[in-house]
Amino acid sequence: MMDLYSRRLWANRVGIALSMVAMSVGLAVLLWILWTLFSRGFAALSLDMFTQDTPAPGSEGGGLRNAIVGSGLILFFSMLIATPIGILAGIYLAEYGRVSKFASFTRFMTDIMLSAPSIVIGLFVYALFVATTGGFSGWAGALALALIAIPVVVRTTENMLKLVPTSLREAAFAVGAPRWQVSLKITLRAVKSGVVTGVLLAMARITGETAPLLFTALNNQFFSTNMAEPMGNLPVVIYQFALSPYDNWVNLAWGGALLIALFVLAINIGVRVAFRNKDKN
Predict the structure, then answer these.
(1) Which residues contact 213 (CB under 8 A, 6 or more apart)?
(2) How does DSSP classify residue 164?
(3) Are residues 138 and 266 in the same domain?
(4) In angstroms, rounded to a whole number, what is the distance separating the alpha carbons of residues 111 and 152?
(5) Which residues of the chain are modeled with pLDDT < 70?
(6) One domain, residues 148 and 197
(7) 26 with 61, same domain?
């Protein structure tokens, strides 16, 4: 009996030790990446990065104003498309079609879209939208990113709504509330922090996507807010500048990468703090 206990004890210690080693290696690599990003990114930050457009090859100075504005517009419209579609689809799967064949098919397609490479979605939008309209555009980029974000929002919304106790729904039905009011005003409101977290996860997923934008929005070295034309964006600019032989372009690529990282970090921290204060109240 003691031998069995000793073996289990040593097996437990070895498992914990290996887990600690794996965690330490992962944290060391993560800290190394963050240190490199922040050290080289902060060195490239300047006021010109936000007030000037991308420079010509071999020239000095310049900034990322056109890419920052373009990324903001594409991201805004992609989330404007993905958020209501994803939340409403998640409500349907959790509240209306739990066992229907159409709901099962929707879950299956959602899982496929979650695991599909982003370049495949970019090619799909290129063939469906860009090739038929005859040109790259910001709208095509927003559509491609929306297709990546929708399944994330759908899955998160459905999973959050399934955590709502059945007794809460039954109490609402008992006072005469129709199903749509129960879904929108009670169950969805009960898990709003989790749904918002899912929207933020979707936003974080698409913020740095490069491949879909290469086939849809492409790039524009000039400042433009016309979504019907090729539009500059940070992921494509970072990709192009990081591979260039010009030191100025490489430095701007590091600055752009830092801006994306800080943007995602700031949104996540801000929303978590806001919902934590509401929960306390």
Answers:
(1) 74, 122, 141, 144, 145, 233, 235, 236
(2) S
(3) yes
(4) 9
(5) 1-2, 277-281
(6) yes
(7) no
Beta strands in 14-149, from DSSP E residues, in sequence order: none
Q: Please give the backbone phi and psi of residue 244, each rounded to the nearest 5 degrees, phi first.
A: -80, 160
The separation between the first and the last C-alpha atoms of the chain, rounded to the nearest angstrom, is: 54
CB 86 within 8 A of CB 149: yes
Residues 33 and 56 reside in one and the same domain: no
Token pair of 274 as six digits? 């806001």
- C-beta atoms surrounding 264 within 10 Å: 16
d(CA 155, CA 242): 34
Examine the domain organization and report whether 118 and 33 are in the same domain: no
pLDDT digits (tens, 9 = 90+) for 220-236: 889 999 999 999 999 99
- The residue type at 11: A
Query: What pLDDT score does 78 carry?
Result: 96
Cβ atoms within 10 A of the Cβ of 196, count? 17
Give the integer Cα–Cα distance in Å for 129 and 109: 21
Q: How many domains does the chain have?
A: 2
The confidence score (pLDDT) of residue 270 equals 76
Residue 1 pLDDT: 53
Q: Are residues 116 and 146 in the same domain?
A: yes
> Structural domain of residue 6, as residue ranges?
2-44
